[in-house]
Structures are given as structure tokens and as C-alpha cells.
Amino acid sequence: MATLHRPAEIITLLQDIERRSQQGAAGLSQKDNPEGAWSAIGFRIGKHHMLIPLDHAREMFPVPEEITRVPKSQAWVFGIANLRGDLLPIVDLQHFLMEKPSKLDKRSRILVLNHPEYFTGLLVDEVFGLKHYGRQPETHDPTQHLNLIPYLTGSVFQQGTQWLVMSFQKLAEDPRFINAAA
Could you give the dihedral angle defined by the CA atoms of residues 45, 110, 96 and 143, in that order, rounded to the nearest 10 degrees? Predict the structure, then answer.
């Protein structure tokens, strides 16, 4: 391997590596992602198994030990946590949707919304991880889960379980969600 001495040589090498990496990634995504295929994160609130499209969540992590309560806020505002130096407001999703507070345990997690305007975490009871599907979800039957309807985009049945597909974008646009002050 040749030794690089000048900054221009190093920059050229890095640009070449980046270009080849992007070409390889583009080829993989075209081969491995047939039309209609999609990926989601599976999670649970109460007895409801939920899915969110992978691009709706920025990250997930265990519930932090130190969460500060927010005075004069809605009951469903769980608190504020420090996430790598940024203050993250956390909403108890079950409490917001079903007016029943979540019970924390070792499986509880925080899902961070991937929304351009809102840096918000959602407390959920459990995260099942990444799930892959070969076709788009079916339209959701609105006669069930009435309190969830405004936030659902469809449902998927997998191994006898109904997974409700939720849109965090719709949640973030709900005036009730935006106005967390009591």
C-alpha cells in the first residue's frame, strides 16, 4: 500500500472510498428490497402490538434512571431526560392514547420520534425490534381500537397476531399532542 503524504491525496482516497461505498449500498438496496417490501419497528403499548415504519423512529433506548417531571403539564407528559446533552421531552404513549399510565418495568423503552420539528421520546411497554414485510399493510378496520384510529395507517397479521401500523407523523401533528401544557 502506498503511503499518502499530501492532504490532497488523502482527500482523493476518502472521496473514492465514499463513492464506492454509496454505489455498493445502492446496489444492495435495489436487490434486497423488492417492490412493496418495507421494514418497521415492533413495539407494545398495553395489549396492543404496534408497528412504526423504520423511518419514523430516530432511535430507541431503555428508560433513563433520571427523569425530571414537568410541572403544570398534561398527565401523559412523563418528564424530561438528558439524552447526550439534549433535553428530551418524554410522553407516556399509553397514557396519551388510552388515558391509562404505563407501568414501568425492565422491558419499557423510549422511542424517539424522527420528526423535523419535534424532538420527543415516547414511553412504550416493550420493543420487539426490527420486522420486515414483503408487502404493504392492509387498510385498518376502524371498528376496533377507536382511540387509536387517528394515528393508524393499516394493520398486518403475523403468526396469529394483529400488528397495528402507527404513524408517528400523525401523532406529532395532533394539536392535543403538541399542547402538553395542562
Answer: -40
